[in-house]
Amino acid sequence: MKIAALGGGHGLANLLTGLRGLSSPDVTVAGIVTVSDNGGSSGRIAREHPFLPPPGDIRNCLTALAGNHPVAQAFEVRFPGEGPLGGHVVGNLVLAALTLRNGGDMALAASEIALALAVGVSIYPSSDAPLTLCAECLDGAVYRGETEIRGRARRSPIRRVWIESSVPEKPVSAHANAVAALADADLIVLGPGSLYTSLIPNLLLPEIREAIRLSPARKVYVANLMTEPGETDGMGVADHVRAVVLHGRFPLDAVVVSTTVLDDDETLPYNRTGASPIRFRRPYDDMFSAGSPIVVTEDLAEVVSPAADGKNFVRHCPEALARVLDGLAPAAYGKGC
């Protein structure tokens, strides 16, 4: 069985660590990562080297998969200070350097790091060029750039998003490896992760959208656990699904929803920023339009505190989520792989 997962940020990295546990000679996993980040170290690299995709989300997936490998831990070190290196993450610089050495091919650079760190998962950028994410809100305002969208002062809901090339000389196009992984997949997993700034940007690439639409693979969306301020305020599971279908232009076969009840003290840090658990209404017969996906509900959330500041954060248990997705694979329905 071949699994392709799309997204970005911590959501995709967490998912891939779980899916890797399914890996065997008969199961392969590929992660397809968004390249629209324009903030922090990644954004600086993309601005200074306009033909390079931002490396941060790819680096994050690689280091999460590498676990306690000392080189992976070094990749996560951020340089202090205000100088030329200040704020840069070591792994971003290494990935950018390898990309330059490989003629601008970040997929090849990522494969070299994956081999060195023995991550056991293929990682591909969704595009071989940096993309500018744009959003139009219900109040008519238009924002360009992921950080601008998330940080906008007026919180009118997002109506739609689209992508533009960050480099006029290089038109928007998907990376061939990402398209091939989707075309060859038996199971395509979308999410979890930031809806408008991690997941949907991948679906806005015509080649990726078409590869998913034409694929006979089972297409599964994993619903997020919490809303994100400035991005999905007040949105429930059904709203997320509608946004995915609207921008992706393909039907989903299944939606995975966590039913874990989180205590108030577990969500307090999120509540302080304006986030809240995503609503899931039962009965859900009216949640989706005709031809709606099946809804799979499981206790999937866990609270962890790996950060140096000790603050808890909520995520899907990677092993539990992988087991659910394994059960949704075509073989589980008697169709074979």
What does this structure look like?
The chain has 337 residues and is of the alpha/beta class. The chain has a single domain, classed as Rossmann fold. The chain has helices at residues 9-20, 40-48, 56-66, 70-75, 90-101, 106-117, 146-150, 176-183, 195-203, 206-214, 237-248, 264-271, 318-328; strands spanning 2-7, 28-33, 122-125, 131-137, 142-144, 158-165, 187-190, 218-222, 254-258, 294-298, 301-304, 313-316. α1 crosses α13, α5 packs across α6 (106-117) and α9 (195-203) packs parallel to α11 (237-248). It is globular and about 50 Å long.
Question: How many beta-strand runs?
Answer: 12
Q: What order do the SSEs take from the amino end to the carboxyl end, as H and E?
A: EHEHHHHHEEEHEHEHHEHEHEEEH
Q: Predict the CATH topology.
A: Rossmann fold
User: In which range does the helix fraction lie?
Assistant: 25-40%
Q: What's the shape?
A: globular
User: By CATH's scheme, which homologous superfamily applies?
Assistant: CofD-like domains
CATH architectural group: 3-Layer(aba) Sandwich
What gap, in angstroms, lies between the N and C termini?
5 Å
Please tell me the total number of domains.
1
Proportion of strand residues: 15-25%
Radius of gyration of CA atoms, rounded to a whole number: 19 Å
| Class from helix and strand fractions | alpha/beta
How would you sum up the major sheet?
Answer: 7 strands, parallel
Strand order of the biggest β-sheet: 3-2-1-7-8-9-10
User: What's the assembly state of these chains?
Assistant: single chain
